[in-house]
């Protein structure tokens, strides 16, 4: 436990390169001395180091892409009989530079006699689910098979993340463009036209005057507004866990979006179950780890209750039917697999099916969001256009008289 705690500090560093240049970066290490050792291996000399506060630190685990590469390399090497220490040495050269020191540290610990799962837990390279899978594989002696299974699991998770990213990119681009156009109109176009009409003696509607006042304030106090925006962004980053939890709660209540969230959580659950059961983990232990990986309250509560009753001696076939958060066909498939004793294949099948279902639901959600975004753009920019056109039409009609 001490090693894990010591491996959780993150540092901002300024280092000198061999060619005389400077390099700035962020690196995780047990302490400043350990950071200097890491940099020295890369032929860098630490000049200054700063410990980052916890709210500014990134996740303890490396990126999912690097984890996928690590699992893939280990699976290929271990299944061909390459010793674990040599496999880790080769793997350290195939991952990103930020993850390589952790893999190298893990290799050193394994060479010193630590088990692979203990070394992975100590350096914080994987989450608890992955460590549990490797620990179970060590008991069965099939570390290469576990790595192969986890490689497929991480690739599936990358697909899920990519789909979630796609869902967010389109609205973000549309909203950014809408906001930029609205600010340009309200700060520069509207005040200029309004001032010209006032100078000509034409009265302005109240909503045009209100938008002009806001626009002039934003333009004249741009620096203060910018600083305020930066402070707000900093507060959101510092309280990102609270903000993400609020967004998560809201997403579980919005029609269409809540179906996507539930499908994503179900895909995560079955992916974890498939990886753990294939590695020889007992069903109750696998359920304990998989349930902790969930964030959907209803699904987590029902599956947690299923595990508790299963440990107490309940019938799995009956307990599966009580998990109403899962679709009825999914429950029927699990019940049939339990009768035939083929739950591991059922978990794998459901993980793939849920991932495909997530893609379909995401596409439907994106299709539904497009008209909503168009309406939002119309309300934002259209109101500004109306505030300009109404006084212009009044001025034109007055001139014609």
Question: What's the quick description here?
Answer:
The chain has 401 residues and is mainly α. Helices cover 74% and strands 6% of the residues.
Helix coverage percent of residues?
A: over 70%
Give the topology string: H per helix, E per strand: HEEHEHHHHHHHHHHHHHHH
Radius of gyration: 28 Å
Name the shape in a single word: flat
User: Which structural class should the secondary elements be placed in?
Assistant: mainly alpha
- What gap, in angstroms, lies between the N and C termini? 86 Å
Can you identify the CATH class of the domain at 64-156?
Answer: Mainly Alpha
Q: State the major sheet.
A: 3 strands, antiparallel
Strand percent estimate: 5-15%
Number of helices: 17
Please give the order of strands in the largest beta sheet.
2-1-3
Number of strands: 3
List keywords for this structure.
401 residues; mainly alpha; Receptor-associated Protein; three-stranded antiparallel β-sheet; 6% strand
Explain what you see:
The chain has 401 residues and is mainly α. Among the domains are: 2-56, no CATH class; 64-156, Up-down Bundle (Receptor-associated Protein), CATH 1.20.81. Helices cover 74% and strands 6% of the residues. It is built from 17 helices and three strands. Strands 2-1-3 form a three-stranded antiparallel beta sheet, with helices on one face. A hairpin with a 5-residue loop joins strand 1 and strand 2. The radius of gyration is 28 Å and the shape is flat. Residues 1-7 have low confidence and may be disordered.
């Amino acid at each position: 436990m001490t090693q894990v705690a010591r491996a959780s500090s993150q540092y901002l560093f300024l280092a000198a390169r061999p060619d005389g240049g400077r390099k700035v970066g962020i690196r995780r290490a047990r302490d400043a001395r350990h950071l200097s050792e890491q940099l020295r291996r890369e032929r860098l000399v630490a000049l200054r180091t700063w410990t980052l506060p916890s709210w500014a630190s990134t996740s303890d685990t490396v990126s999912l892409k690097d984890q996928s590469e690590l699992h893939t390399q280990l699976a290929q090497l271990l299944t061909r009989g390459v010793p674990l220490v040599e496999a880790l040495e080769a793997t350290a050269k195939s991952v990103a530079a930020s993850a390589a020191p952790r893999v190298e540290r893990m290799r050193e610990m394994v060479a010193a006699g630590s088990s692979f799962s203990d070394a992975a837990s100590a350096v914080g390279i994987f989450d608890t689910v992955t460590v549990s899978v490797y620990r179970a594989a060590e008991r069965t002696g099939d570390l290469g098979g576990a790595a192969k299974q986890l490689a497929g699991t991480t690739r599936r998770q990358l697909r899920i993340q990519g789909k979630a990213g796609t869902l967010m990119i389109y609205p973000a681009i549309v909203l950014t463009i809408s906001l930029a156009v609205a600010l340009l109109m309200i700060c520069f176009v509207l005040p200029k036209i309004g001032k010209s009409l006032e100078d000509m003696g034409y009265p302005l509607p109240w909503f045009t005057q209100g938008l002009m006042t806001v626009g002039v304030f934003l333009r004249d106090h741009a620096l203060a507004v910018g600083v305020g925006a930066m402070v707000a962004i900093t507060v959101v980053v510092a309280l990102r866990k609270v903000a993400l939890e609020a967004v998560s709660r809201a997403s579980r209540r919005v029609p269409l979006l809540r179906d996507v969230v539930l499908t994503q959580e179900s895909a995560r659950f079955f992916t974890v179950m498939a990886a753990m059961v294939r590695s020889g983990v007992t069903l109750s232990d696998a359920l304990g780890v998989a349930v902790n990986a969930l964030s959907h309250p209803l699904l987590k509560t029902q599956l947690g209750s299923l595990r508790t009753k299963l440990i107490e001696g309940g019938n799995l076939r009956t307990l599966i039917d009580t998990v109403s958060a899962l679709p009825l066909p999914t429950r029927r498939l699990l019940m049939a697999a339990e009768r035939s004793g083929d739950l591991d294949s059922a978990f794998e099948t459901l993980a793939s099916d849920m991932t495909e279902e997530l893609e379909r639901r995401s596409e439907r959600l994106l299709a539904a969001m497009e008209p909503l975004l168009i309406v939002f753009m119309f309300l934002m920019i259209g109101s500004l256009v109306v505030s300009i056109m109404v006084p212009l039409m009044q001025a034109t009609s007055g001139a014609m008289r």
